[in-house]
Amino acid sequence: MIEFLSQIDTQVFLFLNSFHTPALDQFMMLLSHRFVWVPMYVMIFAMVVHRYGFVGGIIVALGVALTVTLADQTCATLIRPYVHRLRPSNPDNPISQFVHIVWGYRGGSYGFPSCHAANTFAVATYLSYVFRRRRLAVYSLFAWALFNCYSRVYLGVHYPGDLIVGALIGALMGYISYRITEMVGIWILRHPLKPNHDTVHINFGSLIPEINMSNSVLICATGVLTTTVLLFISLFAYFA
Asked: Closest by alpha carbon to 102, among 31, 165, 191, 201?
C-alpha cells in the first residue's frame, strides 16, 4: 500500500514539476523565500493590533511564533530523522535526473514532511481563527499557503505527499496554538480576544476623500501586491 501511494506521489510530482519555464524560475525562488513576505507579516501584525489592541496583538504574535515552532520542530526534529525520505531533487534519488532543478537548488537531504507546508499552513490556520468570519482574509491566507506549497514542487524539492502531510501537521498546530492563545487571553485580558475595530480609516488630506478599508481587504491587497512585485522583478530580470 505504501509503495503504491509512493508511486502515485512520484507520478503526480513529475507531472506538476514538468510545467516550468525559465521566465518563472526566479519568481518561484522568490515566492518560496520566507523573508520576501515580511511586508505581509508586518501588515498582518498591524491589522491584529488595530483589531485587538496592542496587548492582544502581542499575544497573537507570540501565538504565531508558538505555532511555527511547533509545526517546524514536529516535522524537522520528530519525523524527518526517522522517515528518511529523499527529496526528489536529491542526487541520490533515482528520479532526480527527471526533475526540473532551479539554479542548482536542491534543499536538504530529506523532505518528508515539508516544513514549508507545515509552517505556512500553521500560520494560515492560526490567523484564520484570529480573523474568523472575515472570509476574504481567510481565503487570502490559505491562497498564500497553497502558492508557497506549489513553489516547492516547481523547484523540485518536495513531493505532493510531503506537502499534504506537512499542511495537515501545520493546520493541527495552528488550531492547538490558537486554543492556547484563547486561554492566555482570558488569563491576561480577563476575556477571550474580542475585535474592537474591523475597518481602517485612511486620510490623505483634504484633497482626497477618506478611504475606509476592512482588515480583510488590506491583508489581501498586501499579498497580491507582494506577489505582483515579485513577478515583475523576475520577468524584468529575465527579459532585460
From this structure: 31
**Which range of residues forms the domain containing residue 48?**
38-198+211-239
pTM score = 0.91
The C-alpha cell at 36 is 520576501
CA–CA distance, 144 with 140 (Å, rounded to integer): 6
Domain of residue 63, CATH code: 1.20.144
Positive or negative CA dihedral for 154, 159, 160, 162? Answer: negative
Cα(68)–Cα(51) distance, integer angstroms: 22
| pLDDT of 211 over the 60 cut | no
C-alpha separations of 185 from 64, 66, 189 in Å: 14, 15, 5
For residue 23, is it within any domain? no
Question: Which residue, 185, 228, 168, is CA-closest to 36?
Answer: 228
Give the count of domains, the chain.
1
What pLDDT digit, counting tens, does each position of 3-45 carry?
A: 888 899 999 999 999 998 998 999 999 999 888 888 889 889 9
